[in-house]
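ARCHIVE CARD
Drawer: 12
Card no.: 0347
Subject: one protein chain, sequence and derived structure
Cross-reference: see card 0346
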Amino acid sequence: MKSVFDYLVQGVYIVSTEFENQMAGLTAAWVMQSSFKPPMLAVSLGPTRRTAELIEKSGKFTVQVLDEIQRQVAEIFGYHSSRNFDKFSRVQWSRSEKLGLPIIEGVLGYFECELEGRLESGDHVIYNGKIINHKLLKKDGRPMRFLMRDWF
């Protein structure tokens, strides 16, 4: 059954973090810029997710913009739990410039954020992060878009 939710246009991103040598990341569609000054991003994650748990402990995270050709990456990070599946062993990755967090090869770019606050919102938590660095990695790609009917 079609719904107006089917027309909300969102990107597809990887949110990642690391705490005490434990890496976690997940596919997220609920990401938005939340401030110009200072520049900030907000991500909405399920509070039981391993990535959310490690963001709370580390106080830092990345938001990586997936290229539309990275569907397999989106599936790896979206359909498996970081608690019992090493997602980063399935992809090539490197470290971000400032915070040293995992960045997946082939993404269009990324933001490095320090956690500034959190807000419980229904069955999710919105993590608001101050952008301390951002980097464009590919100029010719196209960002992946999220449409509910393509994923579920």
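Annotation on reverse: The chain has one domain: 9-151. Residues 50-58 form the longest helix (9 residues).
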